[in-house]
Amino acid sequence: MSVDVTTEVVIGRAPAEVAAYAGDPANAPEWYADIDEVRWETDPPLRIGSKLTFVARFLGRRLEYTYEIVEFEPGSRMVMATAQGPFPMETTYTWEPVGEAATRMTLRNRGEPSGFARVAGTFMARAMRNANRDDLAALKRILEG
User: How many CB atoms lie within 10 A of CB 95?
Assistant: First the structure.
């Protein structure tokens, strides 16, 4: 069973500002509740081919996985992918203008779980949707604060 979860929020800031903050891996632990640390595996700045290791918690487990930036259009779209662990994942951020001074940020996670993660796919999708909603709400509070 594949998992495909899309969540979005409208943030009262310009797309360039939202993308600059949300797309900077150093800020991820500030707005993602389950991400504890991000380490560069390649030299900055962010570009296609950049690799970043995320240390996170999900469903009570510590996870460490390395994402590679596979698409990057500064200010509008970023796609990261990992093939590690029981849940290979692709994460997509998009930023689009809403009116004159707001941004619709969309966060999409999709992947094809294997092993136990495959059996728990429906539960994982629900947990991921809830976590993403909470994380985007935290991002909105930070940027509109």
Answer: 24
In a structure prediction context, what are the per-residue pLDDT tens digits for the chain, which is 145 residues long? Answer: 688 999 999 999 999 999 999 999 999 999 999 999 999 999 999 999 999 999 988 768 888 999 999 999 999 999 999 987 667 899 999 999 999 899 999 999 998 876 655 555 577 788 889 999 999 999 999 999 9
Instruction: Taking each helix axis as running N to C, give the angle between helix 15-22 and helix 121-144, from 0 to 180 degrees, rounded to the nearest 10.
Output: 120
Please give the angle made by the CA atoms of 116, 118 and 121, to the nearest 5 degrees: 110
For the record, the structure tokens of 143 come out as: 């940027």
Contact 18, 143 (CB under 8 A): yes
Domains delineated in the chain: 3-144 (3.30.530.20)
